[in-house]
């Protein structure tokens, strides 16, 4: 790729970014778009109502940028929880890394690589700015060598600092947290059931016998797939009904009952929906009564103290380790198990199936990527489609195709991957949204690195070299040959996927269009909207991948660094804004996503070092190549230390809770200690809130489908009686 | 190697074995050898005294074989503990495997491989009996293919059965065990010490605060290296004194005080030793008093119940996981830490140093092995030492050299390895003999497989192919070419190292000679002998390696199987006898050595399958080669299941103890429950023995060097007063 092609691509994307920013500035001020751009505030009914038309509404403004920039970490923590803070720390960390790398890269490495004439700059190949331009055996390469060492040391220092910082944040977060049901609960699976005894009795017997002083209650898991569907339908219907009742305009309540409300008889929607809801409720009651028998040998067991839960978690293993398998319970609203299985063997088999499927998907995905690669090759395209020859000969079109189209098509394909990975992770046996997302995070990261980085690198230069991974000795040489050749592709990728992709995140084009269509069709939108949550599993791998590109190309093609730095700046502003206005946290893992970023950075460093070993070898500087060999080893040792030093804080939630709340060893003293922490002003004679909490805990993990049904205006007393009877 | 050379080697070794058996039969009846052949009974003073000379003493007999054969598992368990039982299970397991493999190998595979004429059998190369003799593409190879599948399935079944059996044994053993100090104790390291507070106070504060209901006592670790030396000297001297006093013959008490008792003045040994002992004691007292300050930030912490210890072990992790690092305590007599370190960082660095050293040693060791390989090549030898030409041309000599010498020299080199591995394992930071031995076991196994198996296989055929391990794709082909070529070497190895080595174990040549020399010199032996313990760390890898040879060569050269079967029969008899008469257990791990054997067998299976893939490829049967590919995967999956199913039982001692003694959750009920288990006849009103046990527990982990010194006939009351004061 020549410089002018790159500049075209940068120009197009810069234009798109500006367009998106302007669009956002205007669109966000339209009241009808509030549920797209400010769903959090709409849900909390704090959104400013700008129903009157004013000219100001049509002018772009930049006040939101200032607000996003000024958002402090404490504010973010109180608004969106620790996970959001950790998410933003990825940007801060990356900005630090690439500010340093960019300075070295642009002011030291780039001039050294170039060292040529400045005539005809526009037609210069981008290779002139990369390490390929340095003559073999040149002593200038020693500067690159030093850069590798300095950069590694700097990144390791930052990684340590960041891990330490986030650990302390996590600890502080737990210190400050109120008692939460999942801290007091464990999930027990593979409960052995003898004939004649129900699972409930079995659990009751086991825990009252062995954990009598701390055991509080339990709720057995039931097969409730069908009921869950009914419940979510009823929920939706109910929400719509509430909205309908609140709007007093009779006109809106009349609607045709046929397809999309366009055909059929006119009916009163209120009556129509109420009747439907009642039917649903009856259905659900029948299901509920039939469900009692469908017990699964798994149960949520709650304890009177965090200490009790942790002891049971670590200790209640029986002689046969495949029975009474315990794991920490997720938050009640976080529970999600479309593929829940209580049996040890089944889960074990599922894991293997998932691993095999994951590998197959990752390998098969190469095919579309190769086609995309073919598109960047103009002459190939002309051979395939001779008709296009005329169009492709236009300079601008050819520049668009080489500079922009390939990565766009790649993006389209990549869109389908995150849902598949989520599916795989849930089949794998994770029992909570947060854990499924974390597992998908790792899967997607591996997928992206393989399919975007390695596939492009190896297919671009020599497709048949994919089997280099079967000859470890050859890896540095092959990578050193192939990676620099793809520098221009990845610069274009950063600009397209990074810049425009992030700006698109700001405008939320897809939800905007959906909202528009819905509003046109149903007249009034927003009767059943949900506040979205940030999809960590797809965002974190994307961000981490740009980090990987930057680190890998740091010495090879430092020209990429400014573009990456711009990407992280954009990301910092935009995600701050989105976390503030759009996304509400669905769960709280307490920063458990950080280790993903740490691992990915370590991997990037090692990849960079291996390529450095290869490139110094290729450039006939075997001494430098040899001196680079200790680097990956040192990096791995550093990583091992970090894992030992910090990972336990992130892993076993309960091991740590006990360190933090060691004083809650005995229920009574715990009650007091925790009360002191939470509300200093309460007298510590009796602890009504804690007692209340423990009462709530009893029902926290009851399957929501088993709760008494109370939509259609029945008597409330009736329901609470039912409730009381069950408790 | 031709058949006659093999037969020569077998003949020599069979002769040696018979010689050793006869020697043993005679020597064991000589009273002076009792401390060599029956040290256990001498120590317990149960050895039959045959002081009178009788003619029967000079006749070989075989009664001991019958006795060893008839020894049941229950008897062995009561005599030598569970570790010895598990050790013997290795032989039983191997006998089952190779009885099956031998039957298939000798009666099905061997005839198929041979299928030739029987003329000039003596000069037939051993290759005629191996798979190399089957023509490429022959359909007969499908029988080998079936054999691989059937054998894998059979071994996996046996592995599962055995793991299950030993797990149940381990559990039964714990059920039956009396309360032991190490079950109630943990070792805590990296105790943070603030200025002004001693380690003792720090531990006391921590555990009384957070584990107040279960905490019993603790003893801080001290730097006592010098004192330990003094103590062991004093111990030895004291034992000698006791012996001297018991022998009333004045003549023996007079001896010269110079070199080896041969020169110098004649002195009364009793007075001489007593004076020396008193000096030592005074030295020790001075050391003891100076030791109080030398506290190390580590301590043994004892609890009132197993439950308390397990809870503290799993839970007392603090916010910083590198502080208050807990691990289960070993048995008091098992504690051994020449390189103890309390600091987390130091131990972490030590581990890395050990890993690097281990790899270097393993690689450097190849040099002597290559020299040994050179010796098997007669023409090479003649070129090096032309003088030998005459001798080497004698058929017998050349057969001895090719058949016997190489493996003997290899053995000599291998003798030095186990102590080095022990040293490495103790530097690594293990704190008990048992753990050091287990770690060395793994190290030695890896060392043996690499240096005996791979080095011979790869150097014998093509030395330069060592770097095949950098090209994973090539491994099956290279191994399939190289491994069958070394079949004759390994048959000779089994006969030499296996048969003769094991018979040598019976005769205990080295201790016998030592004992003889000592008796000659000092007139009377046995005044300071110790009952030896079986060196698991060197024996288990040796036995496992013969298993590996048998499994690997099962389809390649089934001729090796009968020899291996004989080896395991010999081993079964001989080790039964030695466990009965010679070795006393030094520690009890409860069968923790079994997972080593399991892993080694899985590794052997996979190696065999990889070679099968390669050999079917070489023999132009790609279909069979392809159908073998799922085998290693299935084996690994099977292994993963076994690890999940059984390993937790072997790993965390305390996690399991709690499952077993779950009823000892509260001290009082525990006291009763355990008493019931141990002694049904004791009334459970008050539990004097448990109280006594807890009293003993307080001092169980006190450094022996800090105990009051009481050798030279001082007043006993004095010591016990001291003792009481310390408690």
Q: Could you characterize what this model shows?
A:
Two copies of one chain form a homodimer. Chain A is globular. Chain A has a domain at 3-179 and 346-651. In chain A, the strands form two sheets. Chain A has a four-stranded antiparallel beta sheet with strand order 2-5-1-6, with helices on both faces. Helix content of chain A is 65%, strand content 4%. In chain A, helix 5 runs parallel beside helix 23 (536-552). Chain A has helices at 3-27, 34-37, 39-43, 63-70, 73-114, 141-176, 199-210, 225-246, 250-253, 269-291, 306-315, 344-364, 366-375, 378-384, 389-392, 395-403, 405-415, 417-427, 433-462, 475-485, 487-507, 509-522, 536-552, 560-581, 594-618, 622-628, 630-650, 653-660, 667-678, 688-700, 716-726, and strands spanning 185-189, 215-222, 254-256, 266-268, 295-303, 325-328. Chain A is mostly helical and 727 residues long. Chain A has 31 helices and six strands. The N and C termini of chain A lie far apart (71 Å). Chains A and B meet through helix 11, helix 12, helix 27 and helix 28 of A and helix 11, helix 27 and helix 28 of B.
Secondary-structure blueprint:
The structure is a homodimer of 727-residue chains.
Chain A: H1 3-27, H2 34-37, H3 39-43, H4 63-70, H5 73-114, H6 141-176, E1 185-189, H7 199-210, E2 215-222, H8 225-246, H9 250-253, E3 254-256, E4 266-268, H10 269-291, E5 295-303, H11 306-315, E6 325-328, H12 344-364, H13 366-375, H14 378-384, H15 389-392, H16 395-403, H17 405-415, H18 417-427, H19 433-462, H20 475-485, H21 487-507, H22 509-522, H23 536-552, H24 560-581, H25 594-618, H26 622-628, H27 630-650, H28 653-660, H29 667-678, H30 688-700, H31 716-726
Helix pairs in contact in A: 1-16, 1-21, 4-24, 5-6, 5-23, 5-24, 6-25, 6-27, 8-10, 11-28, 12-18, 13-17, 13-19, 18-19, 19-20, 19-23, 20-25, 21-24, 23-24, 23-25, 25-26, 25-27
